[in-house]
Amino acid sequence: MSFSEQIVPSSMSTEQLPLWKQEGAEPFLRIENVTKNFGDFKAVDNISLDIYKKELFCLLGGSGSGKSTLLRMLAGFETPTSGRILIDGVDMAGIQPWERPVNMMFQSYALFPHLSVADNVAFGLKREGVAKAEIKQRVEEMLGMVQLGHLGKRKPHQLSGGQRQRVALARALIKRPKLLLLDEPLGALDKKLREETQFELINIQEELGVTFVVVTHDQEEAMTLATRIGVMNQGIIVQTDEPHDVYEYPNSKFVADFIGSVNMFEGKVIQDEPDSVQIDSKEAGTTLFVNHGISCAPDQIVNVAIRPEKIRITKKEPEKGVNCIQGIIEEIAYMGSLSVFRVRLASGKEVRVTQPNFTRSMGDRYTWNDAVFLHWDEDSSVVLTS
Amino acid sequence: MSMSLGSAVMDRMAAKLQKYNFVKKVNWGRAVVAGIPAFWLGLFFFVPFLVVFKISLTEAAIAIPPYSELLDWDLEEAYISIKINLGNYLFLFEDDFYLDAYLSSVKIAVLSTFFTLLVAFPIAYAIAKSDGSTRVLLLALVILPFWTSFLLRVYAWMEFLKKNGIVNEFLLTIGIIDEPLIMLQTDFAVYIGIVYTYLPFMVLPLYSALEKMDGTLLEAAQDLGSKPTQSFFLVTLPLAMPGVIAGCVLVFIPAVGEFVIPALLGGADTLMIGRVLWDEFFLNRDWPMASAVAIVMLVVLVLPIMLIRNSQGKGEAV
Amino acid sequence: MQTKSRFLTVTAGLGYLFLYAPIFSLIIYSFNKSKLVTVWGGWSLKWYSELFENEQIINAALLSLKIAFISATLAVVLGTMAGFVLSRFGPFKGKMILSGWVTAPLVMPEVITGLSLLLLFVAMEGLFGWPSGRGTLTIIIAHTTFCLAYVAVIVQSRLASMDETLEEAAMDLGAKPGSLFFLVTLPLIMPAIISGWLLSFTLSLDDLVIASFVSGPGNSTLPMVIFSKVRLGVTPEVNALATLMILVVAIGVIGAVYQMRRQATLTVKLDDK
Hints:
The structure holds 3 protein chains of 3 kinds. By secondary structure, chain B is an all-alpha fold.
């Protein structure tokens, strides 16, 4: 504590560096070269990952990416084909699900239909042999925390979806696990409820200081919840970063494409300096400037990725002629808060541009077949080499 | 190719098994839980067939129990003799009576299964089309007789169909017939008895198939130009097919080995194999012959049914 | 559409008439004073009192109830074990055989089951001296064996349709396999076990063929007594017996339906809130 205070600049001294950025910090959950095969199919392929105390880590990926299998290995329902899982320094090999300091919130919630809400929540404590009075008190506390204090006597089927979700959370948290695993925790809720619950979940996590590992296929959910996101594809973790970095600095075409939408221009590196790159792109029809360096062979074929919201659209040619391309509006979709344009370039490439609707008449300014200029700043785009 | 596919399947099964590795630790517990019912079924279901097979190879004898010994030995004289008698089986094939009985059982079972389907379909369809409490009531009315004594239901038909029974009285009163019809102790009564007894077995699978059917499918068929009757044959019936097959299997199986219904409702000439076996055992006291009839029945009738059921089960799983 | 639904109503109605006409005539004639079933001699409870004075029927009924109760209970214990093993133990050596033994009794003609069990009992008595003679014990063993199969199939299908994550959740919360079964699995399959018990009880109470093979002298079950009476001819007290049995079953079924509907409306009301 005092050590870190000395080395960080004074402006950062109140906010400590997150653990994953500290050299030599001890991970709470360590996944070491874990592989899981189902026959010939590699569900999880040699994954290594460190997760730190009090993190809210999201495993993000499509179906079949291996994220659920990884989660089930942490819970103990699947055994790794090879590799090790350490929780708080203890190797989990051979430790049965009921012996692990881990609890799970299931995607289907898996509430016991024959038990009342209170009995569902008390289930784990009863298995531990906790005294009756304490169980009663802790269940009340926990139900109070998830705002279900008045529904303890109900059966699960008499609850709404949102209430069930909170019972499942309470039941998983009551044993004060070191690690809570959440499988698509908000997947079964409708959109509005999902947004509210996201923040509730973050509050609870911060209040209790439990480490969360969340599996989700919903990128928005991951962005809102996570301290860090691990993007998974075909059994491997493609990128592990904070949400902002995953979005702004994707390390591959897959991540750029999977999270949000993106335009990509293929091109050849013509100049590569430590702090800038120039790429000649036939697709864009011009030379693109990016203000970060990459280390690659000269003439390498790369992709320049630019998010639709970072492109500006104008009818007049902008004064600064960098990263400026011309095209014709092919389609406009008015979506209320913003408008989406599909612009066709001379090369035939289609570019997606979104513009917030600052004014009510914003959408009317452009129409089909308008010739427009698209341009963006040098620091808005990213070069992807893989 | 098929080899690697096979091994992939095996691996996947092994992987699936690993999921349950938590039980490996309590292996002896598993063994006990699986062993008790397995022991019971092995002793009281499987071994008896071996005994039946053994006795089918002996000769009837006036003894207790009334059959000859298969094995005879005398240790002092180092003498063992095995006496296998194939006579029972030979007799089964020589005497047309047994063949006729097998064929007639199948015929009666097939026809009555078909009649059951005819009676059951409108009932199942009406239940599926009704809703709420009506549906519960109609279903309960179909299931209710099933919980009452089967024997008494057959008896009810004896009273109903006999020469001075209600049906005859009714028909005489309204003048359709001049003298009572002989219905009891005919094949006709056997058909009625089977249809009546096994009707719920047909209605329930039909109902569950029809109930799953999306009502808009019929509307779509009509929208596309098919008349109600056509939609029935083109949409409803094909979709109800799994229910039809399941129901037919459920009715055919008990019908083909039936004893009580032909014994009470059938005539002396109503030949069914179950009844032949019964008479062979109780009237003729020929245990070896009864055993041979049972073994042939098992091989010719029961095994095919089990194979069909197995393949059906696999079809559903896919 | 109209004509079709009228056709449906008529045919379905005839179907229900077919189901209930014999039952109703049985009930009505059980109150007939006259011994001749078709001649109406006025209302009377004569056959009911004769039924209760008929010691043979009463004893057989008591024996049948006893056998049915014991067999159904044994079958539920063994059948639940078998169903659980088949659906939750994953693949193991001999699973195919056990699965075959469990389903085969369902398709086995009763005459074969009865004959084979009798021959087994005779052979066992010859070899080990047990079971000595045939009677209540052998009937119970036989009924347990074929009812076991029904219970196992019901339990197995209930387990197959049950969400396995419920059991995983229990494990996750610290329940070991043993307590897991009694705390989560058993309560959840209870409806299947109860219907398995009721079905077994009914099947045992109803069985004529198997009991005829494996019973000994002086151990006539109710179906055996009814069968011999019915074969001999006019038996008005059997009408009375049938009426009573139908009454009991009807009350049971109506009660079950009422309970189901009450639960359904209860759920609906709570959902509305």
